[in-house]
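Aim 2 progress update. The chain analyzed this quarter is reproduced below.
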Amino acid sequence: MCFYRQFAITMAMSIVLSGVVALTLTPVLCAMILKPHAKPGDQQRGMAGLVNRVFKWMFGSYAYIPRALLAIVLGLAAGYGIFELLHIEVIHELVSEQLPLTEDRVKIIAGVMSVLFIFTFRSALSGSEPGEAKKTRTDRQSLCTGSIRPW
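Predicted structure tokens:
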């Protein structure tokens, strides 16, 4: 009887972990690989487009700085939410059945999740504003080899 409960907990946690990876790591990797959907003259839509337009209007060519800071703040806030979530007794006991949760492990889990959320928010807020384009691999290689001047 105990085996089935442990197996159920294992399955539930693996599904949760798979969902976390699907919602955090996969969009980051896709953003690094794929080109933006917006054409050079089009504007982004949604919340990310609004944030990018406001930052572009307020900070001009230095808009990447507040975008990066916003991604860091949102990622740290999400990591803190995970930290607090792991201190709720029900969730703490569910996770503790598979992995004994010490305070250090909770901090490590929250820290890793913070980094993943920072990358996710950074990829959502970058890359396809009017006048901006993501660099392709050949652009980076050309800059490294010196065949294209960066200025």
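The longest helix spans residues 2-23. Residues 2-28+44-125 form one domain. These observations will guide the mutagenesis experiments scheduled for the next reporting period.
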